[in-house]
Amino acid sequence: MSRPGFVLDVDRSTPPMLFWHGEKFRLERLPEGSRVVYPPEPVEALADPDAAIRHALLNPVGDSAPLPALLKAGMRLTICFDDVSLPLPPMRRPDVRQRVIEAVLDLAADAGVDDVVLIAALALHRRMTEAELRHALGDRVYDAFAPFGQLTQLDAEDPDAMLHLGTTDQGEDVEISKRAATSDLIVYVNINLVAMDGGHKSVATGLASYRSLKHHHNVATMLQSRSFMDQHRSELHSSNWRMGRHIAASGIKVFQIETTLNTDTFPEHFAFLQRREWEWGPKDRATFLAVSRSLDRTPARLARSIFHGIRSPHQMASVQAGEVEAVHALTTENLYRQQLVEVSGQTDVLTMGLPYISPYNVNSIMNPILVACLGLGYFFNLYRGKPLVREGGVLILRHPTPWAFHPVHHPSYIDFFEEVLAETTDPVKIEADFEERFATDPWYIHLYRTSYAYHGVHPFYMWYWCAHALSHLGGVIVVGGDVKAVRRMGFKPASTLQDALEMASDVVGRDPSITYLHAPPLLLADVR
Amino acid sequence: MKALVFERSLPRFAAARVASALTAGGGARVGPLRLADVEPPALPGPGWHRLRPRLAGICGSDLATVDGQSSRWFEPVVSFPFVPGHEVVGDLDDGSRAVLEPVLACAARGIDPACAACARGDTGSCERIAFGCLQPGLQTGYCADTGGGWSGGLVAHESQLHPVPDGMSDQAAVMVEPAACAVHAVQNAGIADGDTVVVLGAGTLGLCAVAAVRHLARPGALIAGAKHPEQRRLARALGAGTVAAPSEVRRSVRRQTQSLAMDGQLTGGADVVIDCVGSESSLRESLAVVRPRGAVVLVGMPGPVNVDLTPLWQREVRLVGSYAYRHATFATAFELVAAAGLERLVSALYPLEEWRDAIDHAVHAGPRGAVKIAFDLRPRPGAASGRRAELGPRSGETAGTAPGGDGDPASGRRAGLGPRSGETAGTAPGGDGDPASGRRAGLGPRSGETA
User: What is the C-alpha to C-alpha distance for residues B380 and B376, in angstroms, rounded to an integer?
Assistant: First the structure.
């Protein structure tokens, strides 16, 4: 039985806390009276995931027939799956997508379905490499489909590959993959790491074009989403739900499969990352010291390579299939059950250590924009109810924030950082003055379609993710970051956490309440 | 009178080349330039006037000369010894002020009929710059007969003189000549409405070019390549829509023009590139960011360079030189200086006696947050010359007046200078009327600038 997450009140006997610092770790002693929000321990994994998957396919939830009843010889079947941005870190083989897709394909073969195409639901993300596809789908699936052009990746800039399905009652364009839209059945295979993932967002976002995405990936929507982890208070989700229902009303049938993973996030040699500091045994302390000191001496590039080589021991904790909304309701319940931590009241200062990885730098560099997005877009939003930090409070991030970009994966990020952020950091102004030009830049489009580049508009979306936090907070301080990079984003740099707390007192007063979000592993603060 | 004299001395010239190869500006210590007492130049004939410099700027071409880095191309059109200094505002004998147009064209040389270029007013392209009643010299400041601005006096032909409006400060007036170069460059560039224009270099010429593009054309986008923070600030203030570090210019142009790229090579590019640096690397960059059939206007003085011209050939790029100006350009230049407030580019003033410091400051202007460095030759109180009585400050001229110096900007002049090397630019004490005080300086040399 795993222990739930909890909130620790720091006192004199509390040991220093472990903070992520990119590809490094730091121990920080928090002031007495601070709170530490710990994630729950990983929930039990499913004993037989393959059997659970098969059971879910045969016993769907909501208004859906079992999958075998939906599969007929001569039909067009499209299986879509989440891309390389999930899960984090990438999981050990077999990936949950492989398990699910193999099960679906077995049923399709039994039904005599020949016309099957797999689509990586990239939206405007970068394409996956062969190695990444093989890792996600397994060699068997890859070798059976890729050589015949039946394993594809969404190209949202190919006008011949997209189909406009009209608009929602709010005037939102709905344009998704033509292959998917013209299939007799779409099977969507999700990995739901957080409550934000899945539901109608899978098809309405994962298979959509810029024309469609811009209706909810914009500043106004982000500002009206409190939080992304609570679909009923998220305009991002409302828009996706409208689009999803429009897709269903257009006669497109979606069989949704959602999976949750437990939070067993790091392998044994990083076990100390998942233990509470005062419970560290001699082995944990020795491992921490050895790992931490050697990482401090390791060149950044090598350290990056080591960390991106981590394969997480995540295991499947639940699987549910059937009608989109019914499935997602169950998934959300499961996620809440394993991630929610009750927190009483907001804090003046919220601090967090950011790790080496975010959804958009798998096998890549965590550039400053992604640092901002991870801290202000994702971790800030790991709440239900109210944000952990009060309005006008201060967020203190810890990350080296190097002025470094992956030239293949993030070409438009470089220009965004060097040109757009040099001009303004205001998301509204950025959206108005720059987005369209980046989104329609033929060079970025070319790189998105033919190389491994995120779409030209993607860095804008990353910045928009920060919009809610930027409007809510009284200040953002980055500890240990590249000073110029931090300032470019409009944040304040600090050398130490103590300095940062001192700086924060200018905003929140001399005796602020301080809360440390001890993640990852992931948690969701249920702020009362 | 005192003058900085550049003599023909091969050993010193060689020493300057060696010294400047080690340290930019090193030629000032060992080269052919020296401070000397000289006789004022004689008036060459009718129509000539004495001009006593008030301010005389240090130009990039002057620095190349001091460092022995000038092209040998100039040898036939220069006569020794000469007094450098061609960016000059000075006093005439009648007490009025004038800006010098330094080109020594047919009219100044007493050549009649004038050459074809002069006949059409294109004095910068005069075909007789080594002939007539003067020794060879393409401009005042390179001619043995006329003297130059880095002195107590020179002679100027009436065709070279442009009266300074009463309300214009000396600092503004000394910017008219470089502004005229920029105006001429923009007029040569043929910028169409909506064009994307790139200005490489943000020294005096580059910043003047940015202002001139904004003043005279209607570009769709104006991108300035600027290396140093103060240069970037000024480029933006003068009208650049995008200001990019030199290493970012190509990306900016690509994004602005939505060009594709192949191994960093753009398929399209800017319609017009105005290269105000003139170095090998700036020329390469110009050819890299200009579109096929676009124009590169070379304003910075290049000297011998080694550049692959294949892109020029393959993309049918027009490479246009832009030297000096037409006589009529000065009227526009006066307007530009006033409209754009170009006097703000004058960062520091030095007395002639501190010429080595002045040249050092000019050589390192960019990193030291400066733009235009000039010699201040206005009379100081108590000076023996007796000129003080006849050369008081002009009405409406405030920028050159230092407090505590009863109107004489030269008083307490060290206190009014811009920052020394290693200092950060900031407010210098003593001189709230002195443009050097409190000014964050900007930029530097016309040639030899790094983009």
Answer: 10
